UniProtKB/TrEMBL annotation:
Superkingdom assignment: Bacteria
Lineage: Bacteria, Pseudomonadati, Pseudomonadota, Gammaproteobacteria, Vibrionales
Source species: Photobacterium sanctipauli
Protein name as annotated: LysR family transcriptional regulator
Keyword Hydrolase attributed: no
The UniProt record lists the keyword Manganese: no
Gene3D superfamilies in the cross-refs: Periplasmic binding protein-like II, Winged helix-like DNA-binding domain superfamily/Winged helix DNA-binding domain
InterPro entries reported in the protein's UniProt record: LysR-type_TF (IPR050389), LysR_HTH_N (IPR000847), LysR_subst-bd (IPR005119), WH-like_DNA-bd_sf (IPR036388), WH_DNA-bd_sf (IPR036390)
PROSITE patterns per UniProt: HTH_LYSR
UniProt record similarity statement: Belongs to the LysR transcriptional regulatory family.
Length: 312
């Protein structure tokens, strides 16, 4: 390998060789490639030096291929076909024939809401694939994408680094969730009752405070957070039969994974909505497999959100 003159290797030379083999004429080969005759003659000279063979010898008005050129012809055609089909014009992705792994990064919120839906949609279209749902959050997703080779990330990430691209999926808002019998609360909850009821908090980072506390402090109020957990399902279990109220995303409150009778209403505090986005590495944007996966995930999540919202 070290003895090869790689600086002299040029894909255009192989294209010129193919044209010469087809036309057996410098003039016709030049016309076929839309270049000047002198440029084609220069390419032939470079080919001869690179291969160390005359390759074509003039006999009258025709160029006769040498034995070396005849031997090289099928190899050159194979190389050009490989470059054309596999690099310059890759085949469309066929989910029905795919036997690989799709890796999707999901926050706890996104996994609880969408994992079953994504499994059904992707496996229906790509029945031989494997799915890996990778738990991520807004603090670790960048490292996780690279380390775990994650194809897509779904969550409420904002202020994306420049190596990521994103697609908006939907906007989420909030409700108060509570056991009416255990708390004595009824919808709607006023601010006074809300503040004096012990609070449960879904806290991915372990902090027993959120933007709600900041807004209450600006108004001169303070709530009491009695318990926090990074797992929504834990909080949901705690709410049943206990004097606790929790602000959760509206779609999470509508999940049917629990057979309870919790009540919900609009919070008495103005809590900003948040966007849910789909993220991926920009360098993979045009890969056919990822293009298909993004469309499949987008359609599945959109349908799931619409179904949940129709529950009222």
């Amino acid at each position: 390998m070290s003895n090869i003159n790689w600086r002299g290797v040029d894909l255009n030379l192989l294209i010129a060789f193919s044209a010469l083999m087809e036309t057996r004429s410098v003039t016709k080969a030049a016309a076929k490639l839309s270049i000047g005759q002198s440029a084609m003659s220069h390419n032939l000279s470079r080919l001869r030096a690179l291969i160390d063979d005359p390759l074509f010898e003039r006999h009258g008005h025709q160029m006769i291929a040498t034995d070396k050129a005849t031997e090289l012809a099928p190899v050159v055609e194979q190389i050009l076909q490989l470059v054309t089909n596999e690099i310059l014009q890759p085949d469309d992705f066929s989910p029905q024939e795919y036997h690989g792994i799709f890796r999707i990064g999901l926050t706890d919120y996104a996994e609880l809401l969408f994992a079953p839906t994504l499994f059904d949609a992707i496996r229906h279209a790509a029945p031989h694939c494997q799915l890996s749902f990778c738990n991520i959050d807004r603090n670790n997703y960048q490292q996780a994408v690279e380390a775990q080779k994650i194809d897509l990330v779904i969550g409420s990430m904002t202020d994306l680094p420049r190596e990521f691209d994103a697609q908006y999926l939907y906007t989420e808002d909030h409700v108060c969730l509570f056991d009416a019998d255990a708390t004595g609360l009824a919808s709607p909850i006023d601010l006074a009752r809300y503040i004096h009821t012990p609070q449960a908090l879904v806290t991915p980072d372990g902090k027993l405070a959120s933007k709600v506390d900041s807004q209450l402090q600006q108004q001169g109020f303070q709530r009491h957070v009695a318990v926090g957990s990074g797992n929504f399902m834990t909080i949901r279990h705690l709410l049943t039969g206990r004097n606790l109220v929790c602000v959760v995303s509206t779609l999470m409150a509508k999940l049917d994974v629990f057979h309870d009778n919790l009540s919900q209403c609009r919070p008495p505090v103005d809590i900003p909505d948040f966007d849910i986005n789909m993220l991926w590495l920009k360098r993979n944007t045009n890969h056919p497999r990822l293009e298909w996966l993004r469309q499949c995930v987008h359609d599945a999540i959109t349908a799931r959100v619409n179904d949940l919202r129709r529950l009222g």
